Amino acid sequence: MNVDQLVTTTGLMGLLRIIVELFSILAAWIVIQDVRFDVFLRQPRGVKARILQVMIAVIIGHLFANFLFSYWQWSSALKFLVE
Q1: Domain boundaries, the chain
Q2: Distance between first and last Cα of the chain
Q3: H/E element holding 1?
Q4: What is the distance of C-alpha 82 from the center of its chain?
Q5: CA distance linking residue 83 with residue 79, whole number of Å
Q6: What is the pLDDT at residue 40?
Q7: Residue 48 and residue 28: Cα distance in Å, rounded?
């Protein structure tokens, strides 16, 4: 693998990670919309509640995306067991 291929591969992996991260955050946001925040918060439709929802969605989406990439890396490493 030459330097140009390495740079291209690294760039594509970065782009893939960004896309997966954003879709994971979006999926977490969609799921969070069904949570009843009125049980936990005084003003569930207020600005602070929305900021909390965004923060929770980012945290959950980030953790899920990291899990997906870790799983991908672990499953890719399994091929070295048979070589």
Answers
A1: 3-81
A2: 20
A3: none
A4: 31
A5: 7
A6: 85
A7: 18
- Could you give the CA distance from residue 79 to residue 58 in angstroms, rounded to a whole number? 33
Token pair 């980030």 is at which residue?
A: 62
Is the CB of residue 56 less than 8 Å from the CB of residue 32?
yes
The alpha-helical segments, DSSP class H, found in 1-83 are: 3-32, 47-77
Structure token pair of residue 47? 């600005």
**pLDDT, tens digit (0-9, with 9 covering 90-100), for 1-18:** 688 888 888 899 999 999
Amino acid (1-letter code) at residue 32: I
Q: At 25, is the pLDDT very low, low, confident or very high (cuts 50, 70, 90)?
A: very high
- Reading the block at residue 45, the tokens are 């439709």
pTM for the model stands at 0.85
In angstroms, rounded to a whole number, what is the distance separating the alpha carbons of residues 76 and 79? 6
